[in-house]
Amino acid sequence: MNKQIQQSYTDANFPSTQQMESSDEIDLRELFSVIWQGKWLIIAITTVFAIGSVIFALIQPNIYKSEALLAPASEEQSGGLSALAGQFGGLASMAGINLGGGGGVDKTQMAIEVMKSRQFASNFIKSHNILPDLMAAEEWNMSADTLNYDAEIYNSETKTWVREVKAPFKPEPSMQEAYKEFSKAISVNSAKDTGMVTISVEHLSPSVAQQWVDWLILDINKVMKDRDVAEAIRSSEFLNKQIALTNVADIRSILYKLIEEQAKTIMFAEVRDEYVFKTIDPALVPEEKAGPKRALICVLGTMLGGMLAVMIVLIRHFVRKDDSLENLEPRT
């Protein structure tokens, strides 16, 4: 008798594995039943999202990508500097001269980082007057190869900025705003195995994209050239002052050799336009668009709508089920 009572207590409080599996099977059937009952709502919501994603994909303007392949320029003048590095490295460092003795930053990597810097981007935007093309371009007119600008941002006839923004922003975009958009438009990548550098630009206009790539290559070569020439001139001035202050023949001979190397650096920079990067494959005006991926947008939009619809149907069912259970509970 006691065993029967104990068994009934166990069955009442601890359901068996078979009962749990049966419960899970019922829940799974209930789940599919709920989804089947709400199939028309799911179809309706999924259809709305599918149509919306198609419309969204179609109104997106085409994006064109132009790119150029570059190779790091060889350092013909580095042989003499390397030879002097071991002997006169200490004296050269006092003059601010880098003799290439090791431990320095690679010039190619430095040029890549300069291209990604805010200062370079700001100077590039200002010198080429590309702020409207960067911040206000709305669509590209293929027949005339011209850009149409957003009238709420920029008036192309008067060449004035008319956008409405809150302080501290102004109608004309700041260089900080422009830098954010510029960073999205350009890409500079270096291949670790070959050392080749790829510069690419994405824009609404294929001709603008190609033009920006060419300008970027010219500007970075000029910037790095001007830096090295200015450094060599300052170093030569310092060394000439040191020559005037010493009468020791050996030291004067060393200083003259260092000045000679700086003169070679200046001469090398002046006679070569492709100072840091040599163009292997120049940028072309792209004929095919690089984006947007309209098919992918439509697929993802439809999938998102389907998942959201299923969630809505399930949530609505279980909320109603909980409410009905609460109503059935006896009230004291």
TrEMBL record:
Regions annotated as coiled coil: none
Membrane topology, from the record: Multi-pass membrane protein
Originating species: Shewanella nanhaiensis
Signal peptide: none
Top-level taxonomy: Bacteria, Pseudomonadati, Pseudomonadota, Gammaproteobacteria, Alteromonadales
Domain spans labelled Tyrosine-protein kinase G-rich: 278-317
Protein's name in the database: LPS O-antigen length regulator
Transmembrane segment boundaries: 40-59, 295-319
UniProt keywords, alphabetically: Cell membrane, Membrane, Transmembrane, Transmembrane helix
